[in-house]
Write a sequence for this structure.
């Protein structure tokens, strides 16, 4: 397998842009129509995922240690799309046909052998990882909605009871799908693990977001949804040791931060925790009862609300990090930031300029919220931004 030849050929194919995934999926669905049901009705985001994944695989084809871990995670996770071993040959056929089409006269027998070998390796690793995962977790959990509270026009708080216990660590994200949508989005539970196994989700309906809109506007108590295994460790407390914490939350980014506060309470540690919760206006603070209850229950927790829009200063927007930096020097603490991509980007930049080092700043990767933290960590740079639906952000 000639690695340089693989990379060069993929670069030539990728130059055709959106035409590549369009041709691939058209070929796949025409030749194997049974595969169409595994994909969402709206394929726009799916086309981006294919190109991103292939680009990452080809770019790292000569770094097997890094690539194998990525493929194992991908194979295990794809069980939630009902992908089985017998589907991989169909995908391989469509891929080879797509490469041959766009490379045209550049397509050679040697390239065909290289790509067939490369795809064979990918399929083998993903298939074996999926088989191994079967003994650990189900492809997905069925969960019943036991409470559904609208906290605003576009925000709802849902309480879910999974059919079987779904283990997770505060700060992780869980895949969520409605059976009628065939799309998955990731949300961070707004609670530490409970004895009854229930999960609390804070969901804001994103414009064009099929899953979030369905959860906010189209579900009610008694409905069932699907949950996928938890992913991500960027917002978990393990790397903070027993350090004091500064928590910055914006919008429904409060959800995982709430889980972290509950974890600190359960640990019984002597951490000091300062929490800044930001919103554009007072009416957007949708969970104040819970926040105030936590603040009154734990003397180690100090809460500050930050209203972004000031009528006396039109056009200016104060975020939680701005108020926190004005209030004190927190450089002895670990800082957790959760909110929109814009909020996280602004916060990290402001903290970095103020002398905070990367090791004490905790936040998820930015952009491409359609998949999950592990994916974004693998395939994107920290500067990437995107307004795709994330759900609990």
């Amino acid at each position: 397998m000639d690695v340089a030849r693989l990379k060069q050929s993929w670069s030539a194919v990728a130059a055709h842009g959106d035409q590549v995934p369009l041709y691939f999926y058209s070929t796949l669905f025409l030749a194997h129509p049974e595969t169409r049901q595994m994909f969402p009705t709206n394929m726009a985001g799916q086309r981006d995922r294919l190109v991103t994944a292939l680009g990452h695989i080809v770019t790292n084809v000569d770094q097997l240690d890094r690539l194998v871990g990525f493929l194992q995670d991908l194979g295990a996770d794809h069980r939630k799309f009902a992908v089985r071993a017998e589907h991989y040959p169909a995908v391989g056929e469509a891929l080879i046909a797509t490469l041959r089409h766009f490379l045209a006269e550049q397509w050679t027998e040697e390239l065909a052998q290289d790509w067939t070998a490369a795809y064979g390796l990918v399929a083998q690793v993903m298939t074996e990882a999926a088989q191994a995962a079967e003994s650990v977790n189900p492809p997905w959990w069925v969960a019943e909605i036991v409470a559904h509270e609208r906290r605003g026009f576009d925000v709802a708080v849902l309480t879910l009871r999974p059919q079987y216990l779904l283990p997770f660590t505060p700060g992780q994200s869980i895949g969520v799908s409605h059976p009628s949508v065939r799309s998955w989005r990731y949300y961070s539970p707004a609670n530490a693990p409970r004895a009854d196994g229930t999960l609390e989700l804070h969901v804001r309906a994103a414009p064009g977001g099929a899953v979030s809109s369905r959860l906010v506007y189209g579900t009610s108590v008694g409905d069932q949804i699907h949950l996928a295994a938890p992913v991500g460790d960027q917002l978990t407390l393990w790397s903070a040791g027993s350090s004091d914490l500064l928590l910055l939350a914006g919008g429904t980014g409060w959800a995982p931060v709430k889980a972290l506060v509950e974890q600190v309470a359960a640990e019984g540690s002597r951490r000091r925790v300062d929490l800044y919760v930001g919103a554009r206006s007072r009416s957007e603070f949708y969970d104040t009862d819970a926040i105030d209850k936590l603040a009154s229950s734990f003397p180690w927790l100090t809460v500050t609300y930050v209203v972004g829009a000031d009528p006396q200063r039109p056009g200016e927007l104060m975020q939680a990090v701005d108020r926190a930096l004005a209030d004190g020097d927190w450089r002895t603490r670990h800082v957790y930031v959760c909110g929109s991509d814009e909020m996280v980007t602004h916060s990290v930049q402001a903290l970095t300029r103020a002398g905070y080092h990367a090791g004490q700043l905790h936040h998820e990767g930015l952009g491409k919220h359609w998949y999950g933290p592990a994916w974004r960590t693998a395939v994107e740079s920290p500067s990437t931004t995107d307004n795709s639906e994330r759900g609990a952000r």
Remarks:
- Confidence is low (pLDDT under 50) at residues 367-393.
- The longest strand covers residues 141-150.
